[in-house]
Amino acid sequence: MKVKLLSGALGAEISGIDLKDSSKENYKKINNLLLEHKVIFFRNQDISHEEQIALAQNWGPLENHAYVKGLDKHPEIVRIVKTKEEKNQWGENWHTDVSYNVKPTKAVILKSIKIPPVGGDTCFSNMELAWETLDESIKEKIKDKEAIHSSLGAEFFIDNYKGMTGHEKRNYDEYSNEHPIVRTHPETAKKILYVNWTYTKKIIGLEKEESDEILKKIFEHQARLDLTCRFNWTENAVAIWDNRSVLHYAIADFYPGRGLGHERIMDRIAIEGDQPH
Question: Is the overall model pTM greater than 0.85, yes or no?
Fold first, then answer.
């Protein structure tokens, strides 16, 4: 096994591990790497849907997305599609997946199916480091506070993406939940800065103006390049990230003459997490 670090902050590309092997022994190796590096990448992994599911089940029960329809035969797999004519793509702002749920996602396994010749990298940011390096005056203001996370409603996930389909006969309304701004990782006991630009809307107990001001500073801090890594996708690559500890951003740099006019297709499986505390 070889481990190549992607940056000083987080992220590693792993070679010498076969993701078709969903044994407990292989899972333990992968999870140890995940806890250490926060997001890990594997190339040339031609795994089937069934193998992707079997691997993911090692981490726990699988999620079905609240708004987006999964594959017909495998509803737990959401196929993320950027069609040829689209400039935008799913996930193109800093966020942690479904932080608006009571039990937000523990981990995500994302496999590339079709990749454009240029464009569509994904960035990740380390929220343990973000907490460690946050200004002490802000730390004091958000100590022991919670924030509201909004799901934004189904339209946010479907309307602007031609290749994404919503559930039939499902409540498409917005809903929200409250979580600690600083959560504790259940496996490592590390402190994590648990807010994000996309879904976090207000700090509870503060006036809106003060809340907006503090969140703006935090969001700018979370996006610092020295907290991030960036992955350049190839077909049959797999990313596994600890959704509790990182934010991610799917870069939609599909500009005319460079990347526009190509499909980007990914298969996503999410594992249900625990309630942040």
Answer: yes
Helix, strand, coil percent content, the chain, rounded in steps of 5: 20, 30, 50
CB 51 within 8 A of CB 16: no
| Dihedral of the alpha carbons of 6, 197, 269, 259, in degrees to the nearest 10 | -60
Say how far apart CA 222 and CA 255 lie, in whole Å.
26
Half-sphere exposure of 126 (CA within 13 A, CB side): 25
Structure confidence by residue, pLDDT tens digits, 54-73: 999 999 999 998 888 899 99
pLDDT (tens digit per residue) in 195-245: 999 999 999 999 999 999 999 999 999 999 999 999 999 999 999 999 999
Domains of the chain: 60-272 (3.60.130.10)
Within 10 angstroms of residue 8's Cβ, the number of other Cβ atoms is 11
Calpha distance 118→116 (Å, rounded): 5
Tell me which residue of 270, 272, 225 sits closest to 10, measured CA to CA: 225
> Using CA atoms, how far apart are residues 177 and 151, in angstroms rounded to an integer?
9
By C-alpha distance, which of 228, 269, 277 is closest to 50? 269
Q: Are the C-beta atoms of residues 212 and 57 closer than 8 Å to each other?
A: no
- Give the single-character DSSP code of 225: G
Give 233's DSSP letter: -
User: Does residue 146 sit in helix, strand or coil?
Assistant: strand
